[in-house]
Amino acid sequence: MNTGEVKIATHMKGASIYVDGGYAGDTTKLKKFDLRPGNHDIEVRDAAGYTIYRERIQVLVGKTTDIKLAA
């Protein structure tokens, strides 16, 4: 499999996760997911729609990128 894994660690419930501008899921259900290698923009928005986290990450094949969010 030619993907890398992104793992988001947070105790926040119901925040929305966006990958490269598209909705990927919420923090209640989506704890980790695979992405193709390369640079990706990860954004997390709270229940009111405010951006609480935004970062461009680099995904490497076979590696896990950990993102830790304060609750």
Structure write-up:
It is a single chain. With 71 residues, this protein is mainly beta. The chain has one domain (4-68): Sandwich (Immunoglobulin-like). The chain is built from no helices and 7 strands. It has a 4-stranded antiparallel beta sheet, with no helix packed on it. The chain is globular and about 35 Å long. The mean pLDDT is 93.
Keywords:
71 residues; mainly beta; Immunoglobulin-like; 4-stranded antiparallel beta sheet; 3-stranded mixed beta sheet; 7 strands; 0% helix; 58% strand; globular
Q: CATH top level? A: Mainly Beta
Oligomer: single chain
What is Rg? 11 Å
End-to-end separation in angstroms reads 32 Å
- Report the count of strand segments: 7
Structural class: mainly beta
Count the helices. How many?
0
Q: Estimate the helix proportion, in percent.
A: under 10%
Low-confidence stretches: none
Largest sheet geometry: 4 strands, antiparallel
